[in-house]
Amino acid sequence: MNLFDVLEDSNKQMPLAEILRPKTLDEYLGQTNVISQNSPIYNLIMAKRLFSFILWGPPGCGKTTLARLIANYHNANFIELSAVTSGVKDVKDAVTSAKEALRTGVRTIVFIDEIHRYSKTQQDALLPHIENGTFHLMGSTTENPSFQVIPALLSRAQVVILNPIDDLSIKKIIQKGYDYLLKTYPLQGAKVSDEAIETIVKLSRGDARFALNTVENSYFATKGEITKEIIETLLQKRTAKYGIDEHYDLASAYQKSLRGSDADAAIYYLAKMLVSGEDPRFIARRLLVVASEDVGNADFRALLIAEAALRAVEHLGMPEGRIALAQATEFVARAKKSNRAICAIDEAISDIKNGLDFKPPLHLRDAHYKDASKYGFGVDYIYTHDAPDVYQQFLPDEIADKKYFKY
Fold first, then answer.
1. Distance (Å, whole) CA 35 – CA 47
2. How many C-beta atoms surround the C-beta of residue 128 within 10 A?
3. Contacts 24+ apart (CB under 8 A), 402-405
4. Burial class of residue 253 (count of CB atoms within 10 Å of its CB; 0-12, 13-18, 19+)
5. Using CA atoms, how far apart are residues 36 and 33, in angstroms rounded to an integer?
6. How far apart are alpha carbons 226 and 219 in whole angstroms?
7. One digit per residue, pLDDT tens: the chain, 407 residues?
8. For the chain, which terminal residue's Cβ has fewer other Cβ atoms within 10 angstroms, N or C?
């Protein structure tokens, strides 16, 4: 059987990832933190207790599959919507269907894929029906729900975090895919090398759908053995996902690595941001923050070097700017650390906001105008350069002994 014979049968054009979608919870791989014996979610499912939740995880981690499995386990009326193509009218239709099902004693699950794409108005439309039990909501999203889902909806739905599927599970899924194809569409000489499987595992980065799509494409694109080289030729280059979550998460990891003096981790996160297309000026500004906040005056050169890196990026652009960023990253990471400056200014700001808001002592106030001395402004001030050893009080009387810099 050749590729054209396979494609002639329209029933066999369903993507491999859909054909091999798990039919039972026992077949569901890779989310042992959520679906495992005695886990809270597992126990709720086994107790046949439906609840509303939002599945948050990367593409291909099994969000839709898990929602369908739960619905099947509960024999629920399952209505699947896509936030990309559906709207308020579709929600109204789902409500009608859910009410009809309730009359026969059947509960309804409304699954909304990519729920973060719903507007506030569309999300608001779900609230009363979740509240009164007309249906239970299952949503899926690749974006942080705290940023993309309205608070009222978050208060009514549990957020369940799914991780990228682990390498061992991805490998089992890949092997299952090739076994299915070899059995269903036996092609002469078709076989797959261990290196090819390991390459798919590495490049899929926990995305089962991507892995199975690669399995399917490589199988029908190859005459004979499927090798590592064939997989790499097919995929060529896979770009990293870089949305709003990754923007903040990588910036956070970068700054914390700099603060923790781990130059190797810092350079890795710098590279991830650059490869993903992050604005190098944003990265340079993060360097400036760390140079002031975490290095401070333990090594004042850090701020100068970070500032120079920002100027270099602005003048050179990319890719040359990466060198200045790498140079500054290493220096800031390896520099001695002191957070005395940020601690001092934050404590002083806090004091002022909390009532310790006092005027300067009279002798420090502006005395450049004629009548200032009548008010006592500037009187008895000693010019420090004339008498450097003479003590003067500079803080207001009420906090004269306050120490903001802790040595």
1. 14
2. 10
3. 402/351, 404/343, 404/344, 404/345, 404/347, 404/348, 405/340, 405/344
4. middle
5. 7
6. 7
7. 343 344 444 455 789 999 999 998 888 998 888 888 888 888 888 887 888 999 998 889 999 999 999 888 888 899 999 998 888 888 899 999 999 999 999 999 999 999 999 999 889 989 999 999 999 999 999 888 988 899 999 999 999 999 899 999 999 999 999 999 999 988 877 889 999 999 999 888 889 999 999 999 999 888 788 998 888 888 876 656 666 678 888 999 999 999 999 999 999 999 999 988 888 999 999 999 999 999 999 999 999 999 999 999 988 888 899 999 999 999 999 999 999 999 999 999 999 999 999 989 988 888 888 788 888 888 889 889 989 899 999 999 899 899 999 87
8. C
Q: In what order do the strands lie in the sheet with 158-161?
A: 77-82, 108-113, 136-141, 53-56, 158-161
Residue 99: both structure tokens together: 């009410």
Alpha-carbon span 154 to 359, nearest angstrom: 47
> How, if at all, do strands 225-226 and 191-192 pair?
parallel
- Rounded to 10 degrees, the C-alpha dihedral 384/386/391/392 comes to -40
Quick one: three-class SS letters along the chain?
CCHHHHHHCHHHCCCHHHHCCCCCHHHCCCCCCCCCCCCHHHHHHHCCCCCCEEEECCCCCCHHHHHHHHHHHCCCEEEEEECCCCCHHHHHHHHHHHHHHHHCCCCEEEEEECHHHCCHHHHHCCHHHHHCCCCEEEEEECCCHHHHCCHHHHCCCEEEECCCCCHHHHHHHHHHHHHHHHHHCCCCCCEECHHHHHHHHHHHCCCHHHHHHHHHHHHHCCCCEECHHHHHHHHCCCCCCCCHHHHHHHHHHHHHHHHCCCHHHHHHHHHHHHHCCCCHHHHHHHHHHHHHHHHHHHCCHHHHHHHHHHHHHHHHCCCCHHHHHHHHHHHHHHCCCCCHHHHHHHHHHHHHHCCCCCCCCHHHCCCCCHHHHHHCCCCCCCCCCCCCCCCCCCCCHHHCCCCCCCC
> Considering only CA atoms, which of 279, 283, 228 is closest in space to residue 252?
283
